[in-house]
Amino acid sequence: MDWWRLDLNPKVVAAVRKANIQSMKEILSLSGPDLQRLTKLSNRDVQYLHKTVAVATKSDPVVTALQMYNGQCPFPTQNQRLSMGCPILDLLLRGGIPLMGITEIVGESSAGKTQICMQLCLSVQFPCRYGGQESGAVYICTEDAFPNKRLQQLIAFQPMLRDDVPADVVNNIKFGNNIFIEHVADVESFNHCLSKRIPILLSRGLIRLVVIDSIAALVRCEFGAADSIVKAKCLQKFGTMLHHLSHRFCSPIICVNQLVGQKSIASPRINLVKSTLDEADGLSDTYMHRRKAS
Question: pTM higher than 0.70 for the full model?
Answer without folding.
Answer: no
